[in-house]
Specification:
Layout: H1 18-23, E1 28-32, E2 35-40, H2 44-53, E3 55-59, E4 65-69, H3 73-80, E5 93-95, E6 98-99, E7 105-107, E8 110-115, E9 118-122, H4 128-137, E10 144-146, E11 151-156, H5 160-168, E12 180-185, E13 188-193, E14 202-207, H6 213-224, E15 229-232, H7 236-241, H8 277-286, E16 290-297, E17 310-314, E18 317-328, E19 333-341, E20 350-355, E21 358-365, H9 375-378
Parallel strand pairs: 3-15
Antiparallel strand pairs: 1-2, 3-11, 4-9, 4-10, 5-8, 6-7, 8-9, 11-14, 12-13, 13-14, 16-19, 16-21, 17-18, 17-20, 18-19, 20-21
Helix pairs in contact: 5-6
Length: 379
Amino acid sequence: MQSHDFGFGTQIRKSPYFDATVRWGVQGFSVYNHMYIPRDFGDPEQNFWNLVNDAILCDVAVERQVEITGPDAARFTQLLTPRDLSGMSVGQCKYVLITNAEGGILNDPILLRLGENHFWLSLADSDILLWAQGVAVHSGLDVTIREPDVSPLQLQGPKSGEVMRALFGDEIMDLRYYWLREVELDGIPLIVSRTGWSSELGYELYLRDGACGDALWERIMAAGVPLGLKPGHTSTIRRVEGGMLSYHADADIHTNPFELGLDRLVNLDTEAEFIGKFALQRIRDNGVTRKQVGLRIDGAPLSGPNTTFWTVNRGGVSVGKVTSAVYSPRLEQNIALAMVSADCAEIGTECEVVTHSGGIGATVVERPFFDPRKKLAVA
């Protein structure tokens, strides 16, 4: 296929890697943060096996950055999230939630601290640039909020470390989980972090010059192909196995952190002020009426991820919805994330999932479904 064979209109932006992904066999795109994102390199099950056995390179330039700089950058960044950032070092990354005044989740980005007064929010799929700029207007804080020329790639899988060594030498191997480093590759300016949306060993390479996108992709593939690297896309199978959230599916503006079991990302005892603090205190004290759970769904393997929210019934009464469901070839099970009534969230609870083809039995199980302590990613 040629680049012009794909088209949603000129209002959808293309990443610096768009042409390269087409050359390397992409067959379909979706839209995320108003940009094209590769979603099909052929068989999604093969893409999963490529990820968990070897390594894949994914165009995730859709993870747009919100850059926060200025004398009050640290104070302003804390204002956006309930996670305590007081101990965050320069060079560190943190998974954070951005909440509104009601405690609803607006985004679940990775926060990178590049300098004392220099932060990036690496976004999930929602317009946090506009939110942050709006918050800044009446904050009284001296900050600049903008979207820089930054486009990430994800290099994920057990062989990703070998590929990184081939690219950057042995010194890159001491980069710790959720830390970053400023580097160059053949003169191409990058930030490299030990992060990713796969629950596998992985790295993200943040390109800081969009004109170099084609060269960077080809340079990585040239080094990686002899080591087993394949072009790929973020794997729904692997991220559901790992219990990783997809914003707009598993969480949205009406979801709060306590419903997701993400209490660890909410530090209500800190002296720092942040948006949603009082609402989150009230939710914590009153408890939640629904909770996210893992489900094992009976029956034949699902033909693909769910494209609508499936109703969850118990005793003939609706008690919630399936937000993400997929068949795991490794676990040989249909697995799902679901939001259900709190009184139906106990492990072992049996229920029924209503799919497009009818009702199917299901059981509440532990999540994540695989490698719950993330030993693969942290190793």
